[in-house]
Every structure is written in structure tokens, then in C-alpha cells.
Amino acid sequence: MVMNNYGSRRLSLLLVLLITLSACGTAGEISSSGGVSQDAEAPTQDKRYTITWTMHLNEAVPGNAEMLHYIEEKFNVDLEIWNLENNNYEALLDLKLAQGEIPDLFRIRQSYDLLKYRNQNVLAEIPDGMLEAYAPNLTRSIMIHAPGYMDYGRIEGRQYGIPVVNQTNRYRVPVVYREDWLDRLGLQPPATLEELEKVMYAFTNGDPDGNGKHDTYGLSIEGMNVVFGAFGQMVFTEQLYFAEKGSGLVIGALEPEMKKALRYLQKWYRDGVIDPEFVTGENKGGYKHLSHAFINGRIGMTSMGNYYHWVQAGDYKVYNEKGAEVPVEASFNAMELFKKNDQARIVFGKPVTGPEGKSGSKAYDRLMSFTAIGANAADEPGKMAKILEILDYVSANPDLEERMTMRYGVKGKHWEWAGQSEDDVVTLPPYDKQVNYTNRIGANIGMLVPGMPDARREQWASTLGLDEHGIYNALKVSVPSLIQNSPRLIKLRNKAYISIITGDKPIGYFDVFVKEFMRAGGEEVLEEANEWYRSIPEA
């Protein structure tokens, strides 16, 4: 594996971090000089804390949930889960903050928002040594499996966030085609940009669904990122994507090779190959990773959602409640597609190669989000330490069975070991048929911690080559000017790209857009991003 400059810088932090961790010892062994004092920071004996807690929620957690009660009794606390639905999390959280309410356990879903919330004075600084003292298992997992990532939670030398590191993000977003359409037209998943163009025109003009109507298109907005990837960049994303170039960072959407990509897309739109509704996106509501344009047979290619949103029945085997191996069931996009058309089939293709040999699809960084401590928690003696103790127990428990209990519920009631080995679990009836049952019982309230992804689903993803050709954002944290300017710059980017693709503006308008972008705050953002990049220690 070839390591980029950023990766080599990050690895250099591993030794320092491991030495720091091993030197810290356990609670009460850390000196007051440069560490924490147990007397000052330890939870107050016999005090029952009330702790407000935010987490990933697809469904509300009842106040009487049995696993919440389990944790409350174990740690002598009262837990109040804020039921902030995931799809609208930031808006609901910001409303609470505007009303003067701050959660004690503060989930920051978008990693870029750590600086924003710090600047709003709603986060507590986590003193040096606190994490090692009161969340040692969690800290150790990050140090070993994601060296250097703990530093991403530091602002101006102070720790405000605990990085949530998702090892499965080593797998990029897949490139998905309607296999039944390809077969009907006598085509294969394309390998090059020229082959992709041939397939897209065939999907549009060759009546791939066989209904005798001209009602299909090649691709929509998510598929366009595969075209941009053929020139080495990502554009249509929720954030500005930065790339390494030379000895610094650039903003991918401003790179001159994007004009070549736009030339393809403008021609395809003019020829009716791109869904004319692409501006409104492929998702039409509900679960945000569903491509309704693909599910409804409107387009034949997409790069939306993650690999686990596209599992077809039988792609790999899982254990059932009896411990027997059975074919996995279809999930999310694949499941919804088959509900619409039980004859439909999908196939993953590789990101197509562009004229200069580049290729790639969007990839989410392993730094998925942050967990933080709310500012008010620091005002109550011992409360921060208690929160960290609980977070460590529910997230990174060293006892395997207890770790599974924290994740899935009560052994023998909610789950059981699969077969004789303790390397997998099965969900027991009736919970195996209840989506989001862990929310309803108050389980899995912790944060994701890194480790090698070795579940069967991830093994399947590896066989598909999804750990190759991912295009990641090279800027891992936010910078002050990005908080101020990002919404305006993203709006400028989208407006310019859409105007060029639809033909409202000529290709030459790209150069005008770049100048407007830089004047609108892009120059300051790029300068600060490169200051951050240069601050990463050299290998």
C-alpha cells in the first residue's frame, strides 16, 4: 500500500500516544502536574448524578427502557436520553441549545461541528489525563487502532472531543448498476469513462426495462461523482472536499480538470442521458440513503448510500436464531427495489477510469463524528468522571459478553451466541423481526470504537474491492473560516456546477466561478486549511 503524506504524518504520532497512555496508569495515579487529581475529579461517593445523554437514534428510547435501568443501577445514576431523531439531529439539537439546554454527553454527529460548538461555549474541556484515567479501554482502542485520531479532538491544544472512528469506512461508496438492464442490452459493467458513456446512453435509449416507453435515464446526481472521480476529485458532497496536491491542500471542485468532467456531463444532459430531476436529488424523503430514482426504475446507475445499503439476498451467510447458517436477507435499497420489481438485479462495478488513469468513488473518513462533554457537566464535581466511566463501560468493555450485552441487550432474551463459538451473535425472536429494537430497550447507547472490521458483512465488502479507489476528504477537521463561509461556498459550488451541466452557462464559466468562490471566502478557507495541514508533524 502506498501511503500519502497525510498518512505518514499521522503514523508518527502513534509512539507518542502509546507512551502517553501507558504512562498515565489508572485513576488516582495521575499527578496534578500535567494530569488530573483524583480528589478533584473523581465522582463523589454516594451521589446520584442525573446525566442527559445524546446518541444515534432511529427510534425514541422509552424512559423505562430495561437496559437504561440496568446501567442506572450499576452506576447509581439517572439517565435521561434526549430523543433527537437522527435525520434531523442538528436542527433539534440546536433548538435545545438555543433554549439554554446542554446535554451532558454531547454527540457531535458531523465532525466539522466540533469547532462550532466549542466556539458557542457549550462544550467542556476534558483535562489532560481524564480520558486515560476514567475511560481507559476506549482510549486504548483509539490509540492502537486509529493512531493520531485523538488529536483531532483538540482545539488550541485542549481536548474537547473524543473521536468516533468507524473502521468500516475503509470501504468506499459502491458504484451500482441494474444488472438486468445490462443483460438485456448485452452490456457489462463499464471499466472506463468511455464505456460508462456507452452504457448511460444505452440505459436511456435502449428501453432497458422493456416497457416500450422512453422513461429511463442513465444516471442522476450521485452517479455524477463517479465521473468526477475519473478525474480524481469529488464535488457533490455535503462538505467541501479537499485533496492533497504537491505539498499542500486544494479544493477539489476548483481543480481545472473538473472542466473536462463538466464537458461530459453537459453533453449527457443535453442528450437526455441525465435524469432532468437530478437537481432535487435521488432521495425523495424517508431514510436518507435510499435512492428512489434507482428503486423506481428511473435510472440504471447510482453511487448513493453505503455498501450495506445494497446487500442482496444471499450475498453472504449469517446465523439464524438456531445458530444455523442461512443466506442474508436483502437490505435497504436492494430490499426496496425488489419490492417494486422482483425480477430486478443489481451488480457492483468499479469506479471508472478517466483519460489520465484516475478513478474513485466517494469515501467517508474513518473520523465519523465526535463525542464530547457538555459545558454544564464540568460545573458539577465528579460528574465528568462519572460520564466517562459509563461511556467506557458501554462502548469498549473488555469483557466480551458484557460488551455484547451493552450492544444488544440481555443474553438469552435478546441475543445468543451463534453456535459454539463466541465470534458472532444472533438476535432472538421476536426481536429479530423488530427494526431498531435496541433503541426501544435502551441498548447500544455508547459510541463506536475502532477495531479491525472482521464481521461477515465486511468480509463480503472486501471481496468486492470496496477498500480500494476511495476518495477521502483530506481536511479532517474544521477551521474557523470554514464555519463562517462553508454554507455560502457550497451554495456557490452547486449553483455553478448545475448551471454548467444544464447548459445555462458555458464550460468557460468555470473560471469565473473559481474567482467568485475565492472572493467569497474560499481564499481564506484554503489558507487556513493549509495551515492545519502544515501543522501535522512530519514522519
Automatic annotation (TrEMBL):
Spans traversing the lipid bilayer: none
Keywords: Cell membrane, Lipoprotein, Membrane, Palmitate, Signal
PANTHER family: ARABINOSE-BINDING PROTEIN-RELATED, POLYGALACTURONAN_RHAMNOGALACTURONAN-BINDING PROTEIN YTCQ
InterPro entries (alphabetical): Bact_solute-bd_prot1, SBP
Gene3D superfamilies on file: Periplasmic binding protein-like II
Organism, as annotated: Paenibacillus sambharensis
Signal peptide interval: 1-27
The name this protein goes by in its record: ABC transporter substrate-binding protein
Domain of life: Bacteria
Calcium keyword on record: no
